[in-house]
Amino acid sequence: MNDNIIYSYTRQDAINDGVTIDVTRVANKNGFTIPVAVTRTLWERYINQETEAETDLKLNALLLMLYQKILTEAKTKESFFATKVTINNKEVDIWMGIEATSPSDPSPAMTIMMPEDW
Fold this sequence. Notes:
The chain has 4 helices and 5 strands. A hairpin with a 2-residue loop joins strand 4 and strand 5. The protein has helices at about 10-15, 25-30, 40-45, 50-75; strands spanning about 20, 35-40, 80-85, 90-100, 105-115. It has one domain (about 20-70, about 80-115). The chain is an alpha+beta fold. It has a 5-stranded mixed β-sheet with strand order 1-2-5-4-3, with helices on both faces. The mean pLDDT is about 90.
């Protein structure tokens, strides 16, 4: 561990604060093998719906589209991937970043976001 770190904001901190939403359980059902979170912006704009069933349907559809795009479009094993998906008949830019879970946990975790969330 780097002794020069004054402060770190971990993935779990972001989840606890509501900045990101942990969707790992659903992501695992759609092929993802690492923890996955989506940003609050993406969640509110395109996933969260009137009912829990509608929200689950939107989340599953998005994760399945992204998983398929990673398999077919990702050229290398980079830690960042940008793509476009169609949501509600609108083409949307989506960014996915993979990074260490925290400064003390080097295992990978993914965050799916809108470009403005970067």
